[in-house]
Amino acid sequence: MQQGYAAVLCVLAVLGLEAAAPGECELTRLLQDKLQYEMRLQYMKHYFPIDYTVQVQYEEVLRPSNISRLRNRTVSEAALRYLWFHVSSQAVLQIREVLPEKHPSWKYTQELCQLFDALGKEYSKYQQVLQPLQGLLIRVLTLKANDNRLLLETDVEAVVADLVKLVHSGGIESRRKAVRPKALLDNCLKVMRMLYGVPCRWEST
Questions:
Q1: Residues 197, 32: contact at Cβ < 8 Å?
Q2: What is the pLDDT of residue 37?
């Protein structure tokens, strides 16, 4: 599993697939609409008991400060978006799992899950890109084996692959912490705006 994540991220780094795809922009814009403050407040706070928390892995708490640190380590924007997707979709699933279907927040959470499922199909296209380009990737790495910048880039992408692996480990390899449902979605929205606001030109709308 980890090799698959690392391979996708390596393709993104080497081939320079940095720009957000139109499909990503459309779906994250819909997510942004769903994550408006009033909705987060109503469905993730008012409909829960006071001080209610969800047990999540440490890696499922992705804050803007984490993104800033990873950017300082020259992690590519594509890899950061890939990380955000996996962390945020898992966090939303964690919230849905504690809700019975008759809970007033269940439908809202399910709609978020559906948007993340659609976004996951966009990211699956990277796997389709990877398949025919594996030979090209090997040749590029061979030609640039002495390029320290490239080696550093692919090593850094491996850090993101390790984080994604931990997110999907089901807590086996990670500590857990208690987080309020609204705080999880607050972080999801803040980081999404950091990563998609400029490439998707949200500031112009």
A1: no
A2: 96
DSSP code for 199: T
Which runs of E-coded beta strand occur in the chain? 54-57, 176-179
Residue 86 buriedness (CB in 10 A; 0-12 / 13-18 / 19+): buried
**Tokens 């899950």 appear where?**
113
**Which residues are bridge partners to 177 per DSSP?**
56
- Give CA–CA dist 87/160, Å, rounded: 11
Residue found under tokens 């490239």: 150
Q: How many whole angstroms separate alpha carbon 147 and alpha carbon 150?
A: 5
Read off φ and ψ for residue 177, nearest 5 degrees: -145, 160
Q: Give tens-digit pLDDT for 10-24.
A: 444 444 445 567 788
Residues sharing a CB contact under 8 Å with residue 172, sequence separation 6 or more, in sequence order = none
